[in-house]
Fold this sequence. Notes:
Distance between the termini: 18 Å
Pfam family, one: Ferric_reduct
Domain Ferric oxidoreductase: 124-257
Keywords: Membrane, Transmembrane, Transmembrane helix
Oligomer: single chain
Strand content: under 5%
Number of helices: 13
Order of helices and strands: HHHHHHHHHHHHH
Helix content: 55-70%
Bound molecules: protoporphyrin IX containing FE
Main location: membrane
Mean pLDDT: 84
Protein name: Metalloreductase STEAP1-like
Amino acid sequence: MNAHTDDLCIEECDGILRMKSKKSSRDHIHLGTGVQDSTLTNTASQFLDPHTFAFEDFECPSNVNKENLGLFPQWHLPLKLSIILSVIVFIYTFLRDILHPFISLSKNEFYKIPILVMNKVLPVVAITLLALVYLPGILAAVLQLHRGTKYSRFPNWLQRWMLMRKQLGLLSFFFALLHAVYSLCYPMRRSYRYKLLNWAYQQVMQNIENAWIEDDVWRMEIYVSLGILSLAILALLATTSIPYVSNSLNWREFQCVQSKMGYCALLLSTAHALVYAWRKWADLKYFVWYTPPSFMIAVVLPIIVLLCKTVLVLPWLVKKLRKIRHGWEETSTSKTEPAENVFL
Ligand code: HEM
């Protein structure tokens, strides 16, 4: 338990510090980073505060330069990343699921784009973003173990990555939520109803009385259940990242929810995808144009993250990390940079 706590100091303390500082300077939240408080009168800043002014009546005051106001600056990179990932997965799935049958079997399956293809893109992006939330913490721990000190600055890219974990996590939840809604809509589709009728007809023609396949039934019951559990935990994580809620938690509570439950969500969603895949792993028909199916690609990063985490909770590594995070340093280590920007 403590081992986890220490491990996640690194991941969560910066988040909490940022939350607290945000709380104490509320105006900055609304005004963005590029605006200095002194440039605005109290009236103007009140006018800009969405909590004190109705959005419908909003007009930009003449003394405020709109360009100086940031537009969700912390979301730019996570959003770009999600869009790029979505486009890549969409193209990949389109080539495999739509273009391949069209070219090689002359089958028109373009009707799959709005729901079935979309519902491959959404979960793959969701699980990848979730893995990206936990990967920097692992890299930071490895770096600290390697350097044998906490008094050494992380590379800038790692710091930046750590600071956008909240946004990545919320985006992951958003994609997962959409995925769940799309999945639950499957039986409503007309294409599904026609397919069901066709299967029933074929069954009658083949004189099959019972279409029940035991292991397929189990597979679906299990993977849907795992998906629901994972989504529920993600919802909890998203709720606790609301400043009002997170400010009401102490450090240990916040860390427990954001880290332990986060890893739990990652584990459950990986298990969800693995059980969904079931025996498809060994089935060559899923390797269209020699490319692996998307569920295989989707689980690679989460499995790497989970394996690394498993290694990092081994007792001797945990002990060393804990010592390092309490200020202990390996004698051979040279401090290269001051500790001004160090995460706990
Ligand atoms: C209420 C919750 C959920 C339900 C009902 C659900 C349902 C499904 C269904 C029906 C599929 C098969 C899709 C298909 O036939 O193409 C699927 C696949 C998948 N789901 Fe979920 N899911 C849920 C939550 C999640 C969550 C939270 C994640 C991850 C963050 C996730 C990740 C995946 C992945 C990676 C796949 C494999 C997609 C592929 O074929 O490439 N799911 N899920």
